[in-house]
Amino acid sequence: MKKLLVLLAILLLAPAVQAEDLPDIQLDIRDYHGIVIPEGTFIPVMNTQEISTQTCSEGYKVKFIATNDLYLHDSNIVPKDTEFYGYIEKINAPVVGTNAAMKIRISKMVYSDGYEIPVRGYLYTSNNNVFGGGISQPVKYRSMAQRQLKVKRTTLQLLPSYERAMGEHTVIPAGANEIIVLTSPAWITHTVTN
């Protein structure tokens, strides 16, 4: 109880801090509005290391570098040499009849000054963003006679059999030009000026 009375006395007897005693500090805030990069935007990039289904596993981290400036409303929102980071989201091993496949997810971009912005995207392919996964080579070919009516002769045509070889591993070589497609809008609040 004594402590409470002493604290109350200190609060009542202490001089009140007035508004004119506080320093007048104004922060310079730049007039800048964020820019939204729409979903479905294509960003041209270059691969920095070899990515292979044979040597890499799911979760393997990958890096790409933007090859061109990307402008939106007269603003350079993705300058050349911006780095994109991601990982291998899914790998399918090669099997008899089908080549290996992989899907690469992009999770962030880093400007040249070190500023990071999270993005959601994939390395683009026309096959639902999956690299590889095609049919492997046939094991053997069978010959089939084909009669030509105009010249009145028969030729042999080689047709692939239904038997397929073991699939091959899929590789994206270092330095390959690829495209990133954004799967959701990216909110850009930072740009790099020269």
Short descriptors:
mainly beta, 194 residues, 6-stranded antiparallel β-barrel
Describe this protein's structure:
The chain has one helix at residues 2-13, and strands at residues 35-37, 42-47, 51-52, 61-66, 70-72, 75-78, 83-92, 101-110, 116-123, 131-132, 141-148, 153-160, 171-172, 177-182, 186-188. The strands form five sheets. A six-stranded antiparallel beta barrel has the order 2-4-7-8-9-14. The mean pLDDT is 86. The chain has a domain at 34-136 and 166-188: Lipocalin, CATH 2.40.128. With 194 residues, it is mainly β. β11 (141-148) and β12 (153-160) form a beta hairpin.
Uncertain regions spanning at least 5 consecutive residues: none
Q: How many β strands by DSSP?
A: 15
CATH fold call of the domain at 34-136 and 166-188: Lipocalin
CATH superfamily of the domain at 34-136 and 166-188: Type IV secretion system, VirB10/TraB/TrbI
Oligomer: single chain
Strand content: 35-45%
Q: Structural class, judged by helices and strands? A: mainly beta
Q: In sequence order, what are the helices and strands, one letter per element?
A: HEEEEEEEEEEEEEEE
The side-by-side strand order for the widest beta sheet comes to: 2-4-7-8-9-14
Helix content: under 10%
Can you count the helices?
1
Shape: elongated
| Major sheet characteristics | 6 strands, antiparallel, barrel
